[in-house]
Write a structure and sequence with these properties.
Layout: E1 4-15, E2 18-29, E3 33-37, H1 44-52, E4 59-64, E5 67-68, H2 73-79, E6 81-84, H3 96-106, H4 113-122, H5 139-152, E7 157-161, H6 169-186, E8 189-193, H7 197-203, E9 206-211, E10 214-218, H8 223-230
Parallel strand pairs: 3-8, 3-9, 6-7, 7-8
Antiparallel strand pairs: 1-2, 1-4, 4-5, 9-10
Helix pairs in contact: 3-5
């Protein structure tokens, strides 16, 4: 799409002789929420890790604002891509505030009071948790902190792997509303991987299907098709 600030082109990744993803193409515009669905083992997490420079790309490019990014995690983070990994990626022995400060440092900046204020505006529940160690938080609290870690990096693109994993439906709805607010207020492009197909169809502007290592745009209203694809039963 012509207004995309984030573009992935012909991305391919192999683990040894196994080709995990073969031709992934993604566009995300400023303020847009884009999702990806696919069966287990389709390479959804690998796609995010390849974008972040955490695994080597066999082929392909990642561009942000027209600039091709180097395949190094620190370069990707400092360019403006924040990655909330599956499992949330918090350091359990550190406090919430320390986790936020570390995320800002990783993006090449210093955590400011404004960053903390915005995070607690989006997720008011974490304000009282700032001095608590992340390992003692509930799953929902940890996910709020994990997304806040992404926000304090002030990214252009926020990638979230398995937003709903282990969370109650009510909490997932709250998370989805928070992401929609962030996309609108900060014009951050958001790229979501999640097993909750119905949830993705409600929050996302567009959805890609990843199957047999290849991405394609899906009709997000066709939830039956996307469920079938997710469980590997399409076509």
């Amino acid at each position: 799409m012509s207004d995309a600030v984030f573009q992935v082109r012909e991305l391919a990744v192999s683990y040894g002789a196994a080709r995990v993803i073969e031709n992934v193409n993604v566009d995300v515009a400023a303020g847009e929420i884009v999702g990806v669905v696919g069966p287990n083992g389709a390479g959804k997490t690998t796609t995010l890790r390849a974008i972040s420079g955490l695994v080597a790309r066999r082929r392909g490019s990642v561009m942000l604002n027209g600039v091709t990014l180097a395949e190094r995690p620190e370069a990707v983070a400092r360019a403006g891509i924040a990655h909330v990994p599956e499992g949330r990626g918090l350091i359990p022995s550190l406090t919430v505030h320390q986790n936020l400060r570390l995320a800002a440092i990783g993006a090449g900046r210093r955590l400011s009071d404004e960053d903390v204020r915005y995070a607690t505006t989006v997720f008011p529940a974490i304000e009282r948790l700032m001095d608590r160690r992340a390992g003692f938080l509930s799953g929902g609290e940890q996910q709020m902190v994990a997304i806040s870690r992404g926000l304090v990096a002030r990214p252009t693109i926020l990638m979230v792997d398995e937003l709903s994993l282990g969370l109650a439906p009510r909490i997932v709805k709250d998370m989805s509303r928070a992401l929609r607010r962030v996309a609108g207020e900060r014009r951050i492009g958001i790229f979501l991987v999640d097993q909750n197909v119905r949830g993705l169809s409600h929050v996302c502007d567009r959805i890609y299907v990843l199957q047999d290592g290849v991405s394609s745009v899906a009709n997000k209203e066709d939830t039956e098709l996307m469920r079938a694809v997710y469980f590997g039963r399409s076509g």
